[in-house]
Amino acid sequence: NADLALYKAKEKGRDGYYFFxxxxxxRAIKLLTLEQELRHAxxxxxxxxxxxxxxxxxxxEINSVEAxxxxxxxxxxxxxxxxxxxxxxxxxxxxxxxEWVLKKACIEIKMLQQLTQFPLKVAVNLSARQFKDPxxxxxxxxxxxxxxxxxxxxxxEVTESMLMDDIQSVIAQLNRIKATGVTITIxxxxxxxxxxxxxxxxxxxxxxxxxxxxxxxxxxxxxxEITSAVIAVAHKxxxxxxxxxxxxxDQRDFLVINKCDYAQGYYFSKPLTFEDLYDYFCKIERISx
Length: 289
Ligand code: C2E
Ligand code: MG
Ligand code: MG
Ligand code: MG
Description:
Layout: H1 2-13, H2 22-43, E1 47-56, E2 62-73, E3 77-79, H3 85-91, H4 94-116, E4 121-125, H5 128-132, H6 136-147, E5 154-159, H7 167-178, E6 183-189, H8 196-201, E7 206-209, H9 211-215, H10 221-236, E8 240-243, H11 249-257, E9 262-263, H12 274-288
Helix pairs in contact: 1-2, 4-6, 4-12
């Protein structure tokens, strides 16, 4: 990422090893501004969470929701996570932001469980820095305790690239996390380089097939082969499989036929505000009553 490389260069620039053209300088300053704005956002409550339903694909029943962060910038409006998570990660601000997400997600889902009596789970994305943090286990325990959410209702999403470190320490960290009672999902599976033999050694519960493979179903035969193979292998390893980015009925049908367990995507629902999620459950209740 060119912007991040620049950001690093700017930091080193204080030692006088780098010089900038005017244009590069402006971009570096923008990144430093973004860092300050992220600090401000955390302090002044500019973040919110949306929740995207993850459904049991055969029945269409909602099983869990993925918490997705949103930033309402006072002047720039909505800023997408793709435009600030990387910078937050680079500066280390992702650690307090990630902790905020974890806490907020657990509190809101606990509240929803109490309002609806429905045993809803929540999946929260972890960043690389959070995953590496030796305090993560303690943070998870504290968040569960203060929210009152029982651990079986919390899923943590990690990506393949985070697991590419020394395998022994990765396994140890995954085991520490799992000892708290939460489940672990590998997000964006297939977008990185982990081998299946590597996967076999990791104590994880769910595989989330990357959106890239789902997108061109049913036109791309290769993607269909890969998706059905990943589902079959995952099941052999006793993992559940969820497909992300499911946008149409052809994709849904393909996934049902190939025995995918869960699905998430605009075909089922876009990410919802807490209020909309609550309404959604009230409607289900009225239908089944
Ligand atoms: P992700 O974890 O893979 O999340 C799925 C992304 O796909 C979300 O984008 C979601 O809105 C989008 N999406 C859902 N259904 C569909 C669909 O049918 N079609 C298409 N094209 N897209 C769909 P979003 O919310 O913009 O988040 C982007 C990424 O930012 C996430 O990818 C995740 O890596 C990161 N992110 C979001 N929230 C957090 C967070 O709280 N902490 C961390 N560390 N990262 C986060
Ligand atoms: Mg995710
Ligand atoms: Mg994903
Ligand atoms: Mg993604």
